[in-house]
Amino acid sequence: MIARLFLVLCVVSSAWALCPTKCTCFLDYKGRNAVVCKEGGMVGPLNLNNVSLDTEVIKITAPDDNMNSLTMSPVFQSYKQLEEIHITKSNIPQLGMHFFYGLNKLDVLNLSQNNITQPLDHNFRGLSHLKELYLDDNRIISLPSGTFRYLHGLKLLSIQRNRIEELTPRIFLEISKLRMLKLSGNNLREFHPEVFKDIQELTYLECRGCALTTLNNEIYHLLPDLIHLDLGKNDIKNISQNDFQNLQSLRHLKLDSNIIYSIDISTFSSQAALRKLSLSNNKINKISPGSFSENHNLTELDISYNRIDDMSFLEPLYDILEKLDLSGNHLRTELLTTLVNLNSLKELRLADCGLAQINAEVIPKSVSVLDLSENYLSSLNKIILPRNLTTLDISGNRFRGLEEDILLYLDNTQNIKLGHNLWSCDLCHIVPMLERTNKSAVFRDVTCSAPYIFKGKKLEKIQRNELTWCSSASYTASDANFFSLGEDGKVGIIAASTSVFLLLLTAFAIIGALCYANRHAARYYTHEDKIATIEGESIFASNHSPLFCDGELNFKFPLDMEEKKISIATIDEIKKEHAITNGT
Questions:
Q1: CA nearest 172: which of 191, 140, 192, 197?
Q2: Contacts of 252 (CB under 8 A, 6+ apart)
Q3: Cβ distance 71 to 97 under 8 Å?
Q4: pTM score, two decimals?
Q5: So what's the pLDDT on residue 321?
Q6: Is 32 helix (H, G, I), strand (E, B) or coil?
């Protein structure tokens, strides 16, 4: 035992004895001699001064703000023990001829994140045992036929996020053992069947963000062993029943972030082995009933962020499905009742579904992971929560507090997310949660939204004796359509409308009463009733109702001090004047 320890120490000390400046030398997790240079700033031709000849792993990289500027040189040919070479973020413009010749033990060559524009076949000569080649994030424009023809043992080829617009026929010549091909991030637009003739044993194909608009089923006829197909983030609009009929071994299919509108009953009828299907972020408004009737192994289904308004398509999956993501579909409450039939479901995601409440008998009892985030929930009933719940996400809702019975129910839940709610840190709402701040970081990190004195403050910083009485609820502009959700929302609209009507009616009554009071006061002040009797004329000619004032309040003073004077007449004078008026 001591001898072995001494031997290890000798190996480590010898490795440290030959180690380049600003690099680290150590034994990796597989016990291999590794040299890692990651400080950056390296300039000029690549050199391996002070790197031990028995080095098995070399990694040269740099931080984003201090990248290397290296050119390749034939320095690797003496390092016969090399198993992995990683040179990234080093601005390498091109690869030299035969630079890797003779490295028979090399399994992994990673030249990602450089400035390589045109790899050629002689760049890889002598690497017949290479298993993995990474050329991601370069500036490769095209790849000639037979570029990789010396890599007879290649299993994985990754050329993601380059500038390739077309795959040349016979580009994969003589690499028939290739199993995994990653083409994502190249503007290819379409696949030509001729390209895949030389790699018919391919099991993994990925082309995300390749601007594909259609699927060519002639390609899949050449790839019968394909297990994993990822065509997400493209522009595919339609899927016909024949597109995947030759992919009978397919287990994982990703068609997310396309422009698919519907799924027909026979679209996936040939994929009996299918286990994972992602259709998220499309425009799907119809999935025909029976679409998954032949998918007896489908355990994971992601149809989030579509326009689903019917879930009868789930019926064939009642006893099979284990993970279901419906997030982003604005579901009617009655649709949710279908979910309780999913007897094997373990993970259910209903984030951003516009839910204001969840009734009983919706969440299957088998669920252990439940996501209800980004909805309009303000309360929870423990009846809806499964007993075996390990993860619960209610962040981004309208909760002001959680009741004691709910918290007792969730005591054994390992992971709870509570952020971005309207937590009211007062005696009415927060006390049960406050009492748990000493037990769980989940409650300590709760941030108060009300009252104002505690807004933005962590719950762990508040003492119970500081709490005030109940604070009123507040809603932001983002809640404009909160009351329009579901049946309860309709009741809210009716109640609000009635309240507004009664308020307006009361306001009119008060205004009318004030108008009447002002007019009565004017008559009393000017003695208009007495003057009308003496003068024989009415002061108010209009017939307007005193309840509704049509214009400004006007009263007329009949006495003009300049034209009329006060005089005293005897009874005889009055009789005489009366006789003249009558013409006698």
A1: 197
A2: 227, 228, 229, 230, 274, 275, 276
A3: no
A4: 0.77
A5: 98
A6: coil
Each residue of 162-184: b (16+ CB within 10 Å) or e?
A: bebebbbebbbbebeebbbbbbb
> Tokens in use for 577?
């004047």
pLDDT tens across 457-512, in order?
999 899 999 998 886 665 543 443 443 344 444 444 565 567 667 888 888 788 87
Dihedral angle computed from the Cα positions of residues 422, 424, 425 and 430, in that order, rounded to the nearest 10 degrees: -100
Output the CA–CA distances (angstroms, integers) from residue 246 to 195, 216, 224, 327, in the order listed. Answer: 18, 11, 6, 31
Distances 405 to 46, 377, 411 between C-alpha atoms, Å: 66, 17, 10
- Angle among Cα 63, 64, 67 to the nearest 5 degrees reads 75
CA–CA–CA angle 275, 316, 284 (5° rounding): 75
Task: Determine phi and psi for 286, rounding to 5 degrees.
Answer: -150, 125
Report the SS3 class of residue 263: strand
Note the pLDDT tens digit of each residue in 196-212: 999 999 999 999 999 99
pLDDT value at position 505? 82
Q: How far is CA 304 from CA 111, 321, 326, 384, 393, in A?
A: 36, 15, 5, 22, 16
pLDDT of residue 518: 63
What is d(CA 398, CA 375) in angstroms, rounded to the nearest whole number? 8
Q: Summarize the confidence of residues 556-582 as an average pLDDT.
A: 47
- Residues 169 and 193: beta-carbon distance below 8 Å: no
The residue among 415, 438, 434, 412 whose CA lies nearest residue 423 is 434
Our CA dihedral for 215, 220, 221, 222, rounded to 10 degrees, sits at: 130
Q: Which of 419, 344, 411, 423 is nearest to 382 (CA)?
A: 411
Q: At what angle do helices 486-526 and 528-535 cross, to 10 degrees?
A: 50
Q: What is the pLDDT of residue 259?
A: 97
- Position 542 scores a pLDDT of 44
- Which residue is associated with the tokens 């709760």? 446
Residue-wise DSSP of 175-190:
-TT--EEE-TT-----
CA–CA dist 65, 85 (Å, integer): 23
> Which of 448, 377, 426 is closest to 393 using CA atoms?
377
Contact present, 72 and 48 (Cβ < 8 Å): no
DSSP 477-532: GGGTTGGGSHHHHHHHHHHHHHHHHHHHHHHHHHHHHHHHHHHHHHHHHHTHHHHH
DSSP structural state of residue 168: P
| Measured distance CA(512)–CA(503) in Å, rounded | 14
Q: Are 327 and 305 in contact (CB under 8 A)?
A: yes
Q: What is the pLDDT of residues 89-144, one digit of tens each?
A: 999 999 988 899 989 999 999 999 999 999 999 999 999 999 999 999 999 999 99
What is the model's pLDDT at position 531?
A: 44
| Residue entry with tokens 């030959």 | 18
Contact 49, 22 (CB under 8 A): no
